[in-house]
Amino acid sequence: MKVSSFAYSALLVPLVIAAGCSSSRSSQSSDNTPTSTAPQQPIIIDGLDSEWAKPLPGFSKTENFGYEIANDAQNLYILISTKDVLEQQKMIQGGMTVWINTKSDKSQGGAVGIGYPLDSRNDPDRNLMNEAQPNRAPKSVTLQDKKDYALYGFGAASEVGNFDYADDSNPQGIKMRMDFNNTGELIYEASIPLTTLYPGHNPNSSYAAKSIAVGIFVDGLPPNANIPRGAGGNGGPAIGVGGGLGFGSFGSGGGLGLSIGLPLGGGGGGGGGKNHVFKDAEVWQVVQLNNFKKGF
Question: Is residue 293 domain-resident?
Fold first, then answer.
C-alpha cells in the first residue's frame, strides 16, 4: 500500500492554488462531530457484518461504500462495506489504508494506519512473477492473493511493520479482516485497542472526552488492472447493483448505479462512474468517543 500525501509549495499564492491546482484525490468529510457508535453486541473481527446494525451511518457517494466507527471500553472498531463490484476491485487491487488521528486532525501527520490490502504494485511476489514472465497477461487479483498487511506509525513515529494476514499476534493487539458476506458485500473490519491509541491514558477512566479522525484512503487502480466478469465474493453476477443510503450521526447520503464486472473500460460504477476506479480517494470522519456502558 503506498502511503498517500499532498505537498503544496508554501510560495504559491492561495488563490492560485484554489483556481489552478487540482488533485486526483477526492475528499469527503462532515463538519459535525458526532459520537461514535456504542456496540449493541460484541463485535467479532471476521470480515462479516452480522453484528453491525444497518443502514450504516456513514456513506461515500463518490466511492459508493458505507462505513461506521464504534468503540467500547477496550477497542475502537471500524467497518467499511461495499457491494459495488468496481469499488470492491479497486479496494482489492489498488489497496487501501485506514488512518487514525488521535488529535482529530483530518491529516496523516501524526496519524497511525493499517494498510490492507497492500498495493499490488508493491507486492514483491507479483513483481518477481512479472519479471519472470514479462509478456503474460495481467492476472486478476483476489483476496486469496493478499497475505500481508502493514501497520504504520504504531510505536516509533516512522515505524512500518508488515504482518501475515492470518496472524493476530502483532505487538499492538490490532485485528483486521476483509471478506465477502453472504450477500456479496465486501466487508472490512478492524479493531484497535484504545490503550494502543492512547498509551498515556488511564485505561480505568473514560475515553469519552477524546475525539479522533478516521481517514479511509483507497488507491486508484493501475491502467493495466484486470477486473473479471462478475467480480465479487463467489463469482457473483456479471451485473450488480451498487448503492446505499446513510442516515444518522455521521450525516446522510446515497447513491445508486449499475456496476458491471468487466475489464476496465467497460462498465460503470455506482455513484462516481467507472473513471473513479483510476483515482485515489480519501474519506475522513471525525467522531467523539462514546462513554461506553456495557450492555451485553
Answer: no
State the burial class of residue 251 (Cβ atoms within 10 Å of its Cβ: 0-12, 13-18, 19+).
middle
Range of the domain at 71: 25-288
pTM given for the model = 0.73
- For residues 269 and 223, give the distance between their C-alpha atoms in angstroms, rounded to a whole number: 16
The answer as to whether 122 is a domain residue is: yes
- Asked whether residue 136 is assigned to any structural domain, the reply reads yes
Please write the tens of the pLDDT for every residue from 241-270.
333 333 344 543 333 333 333 344 333 334
Q: How many domains does the chain have?
A: 1
Residues 171, 208: Cα–Cα separation, whole Å: 25
All three cell numbers of 126: 507479483
Q: What is the mean pLDDT of the chain?
A: 73
Which of 105, 289, 275 minimizes the C-alpha distance to 205? 289
CA distance 282 to 108: 11
Summarize pLDDT for 37-48 with one digit per residue, the tens: 999 899 999 999
The pLDDT of 197-216, averaged and rounded, is 93
DSSP-based three-state secondary structure for 21: coil
What phi-psi label fits residue 92: left (phi over 0), alpha (psi between -120 and 50 degrees) or beta? alpha
Please report the beta strands in the chain, taking only residues with DSSP state E, as ranges in sequence order.
26-28, 58-60, 65-71, 75-82, 96-101, 112-115, 148-152, 160-164, 175-180, 186-193, 211-218, 239-246, 253-260, 281-288
194-222 burial: b if 16+ Cβ within 10 Å, else e: bbbbbeeeeeeeebeebbbbbbbbbbbbe
Q: Which residues pair with residue 26 across a beta bridge?
A: 281
